[in-house]
Each structure stands twice: as C-alpha cells, then as structure tokens.
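Figure 6 in text form: structure in, sequence out.
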C-alpha cells in the first residue's frame, strides 16, 4: 500500500480509509461550519479542562494539551496510569452523541475530549486499546477547530496513511484497527488556532 493523503477537495462524504486490518470511514461534513463554530465555542467554555498526565522515563509529566473525560457515572477510565472520573454530559454533548448514534447505529456511554491550543501540541503514536474499552464498538472521532494532519501507521509493516481532519468532520475507526494500527496527531508550526477532538467510546463497566 502506498501512502495516501485525503483532503477536502478530493471527496465528498464519506470516504473509506485503510485497505487491511480494519477500516476507517471519514465524513468531511458531519456538522456544518456554522454548527461546528457554535459547538467549538460552547465546549471551550462549558467544560472543566485539565492538563493530562503521562509517564515519561518513570516520571509523571503534565501536558500543555488539556483533556475532559465525560460519561455515564460508571464509566471510570484508566490510561497512562491515571484513572479518570467522568464529568456529567452537557446538553451539547448529549445532542452530539444522539446524532452520532442515529447516524452510525452504535451506542456510546463516554467521550474523551482533547484540546490542542495550537499546532505545537499533538499526540504521539498510540492505540486506543485500554482494557475498559468495548473492543467490538468503533471509536468515533470528531474534530472541531483548526484543520490538522492525522495519520495511521501499521504496527508491522510501518505503512502510513495520513488524512487531514477538517472542522466539523467525523472519523470512524472500526475494529480491529486498534489491534493493528497506531495513530497520531502530527505537530506543525503553521497552526496558531485551537482544535478540539471528541472521541466517543463505549466503556464496559467493571462488575
């Protein structure tokens, strides 16, 4: 497979991404520009944003990137060794979840939001494969704000597949993507405006 690069001018909605070991679907206009502008402004001001904490070389490091974990009360989530206790759903997030569930036919009980203030903030290569996640449900990743470059990289053969994530777009990552692929939000000096990424997930509550 050769590297591909998808951008707004190349397609309408949706487009299939990845040719093996799972598949992804990209919807460029899941929300209109006006709707996306409203949601971006609302989420920036209505949620409690906190620095994320990751472990590097055995030490806990706070990130410039901010996060918010939203979900049903039983949706405890642990990654990078830190357990997240969910904030309550806001009206806007409930509306997004409802629209997403109607469109995709999948149900979700939680959402991890990442706030990237500018292009200096990104996310390294990783998979969303924590034990709390329902591995049979796709992860729905919605983008608001600055247009950013995202990429998949196959764990074995290192094939990379980049895609530009537009304001108001939706990326559906279907199983078994997390088993075979890493993904990353790439940094860039040219972006000065913020982006919010919403990843809707299904947590399997502990019994």
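Output sequence:
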């Amino acid at each position: 497979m050769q590297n591909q690069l998808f951008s707004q001018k190349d397609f309408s909605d949706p487009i299939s991404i990845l040719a093996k070991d799972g598949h992804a679907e990209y919807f460029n206009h899941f929300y209109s520009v006006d709707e996306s502008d409203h949601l971006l402004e609302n989420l920036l001001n209505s949620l409690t944003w906190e620095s994320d904490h990751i472990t590097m070389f055995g030490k806990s490091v706070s990130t410039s990137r901010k996060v918010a974990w939203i979900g049903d009360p039983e949706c405890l989530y642990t990654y990078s060794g830190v357990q997240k206790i969910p904030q309550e759903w806001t009206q806007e997030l409930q509306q997004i979840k409802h629209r997403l569930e109607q469109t995709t036919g999948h149900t979700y009980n939680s959402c991890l939001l990442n706030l990237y203030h500018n292009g200096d903030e990104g996310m390294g290569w990783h998979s969303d494969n924590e034990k709390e996640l329902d591995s049979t449900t796709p992860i729905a990743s919605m983008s608001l704000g600055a247009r950013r470059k995202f990429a998949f990289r196959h764990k074995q053969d290192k094939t990379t597949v980049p895609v530009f994530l537009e304001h108001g777009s939706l990326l559906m990552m279907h199983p078994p993507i997390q088993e075979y692929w890493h993904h990353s939000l790439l940094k860039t000096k040219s972006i000065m405006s913020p982006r919010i990424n919403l990843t809707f997930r299904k947590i399997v509550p502990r019994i």
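Caption detail: The CA atoms of residues 53 and 59 lie 10 Å apart.
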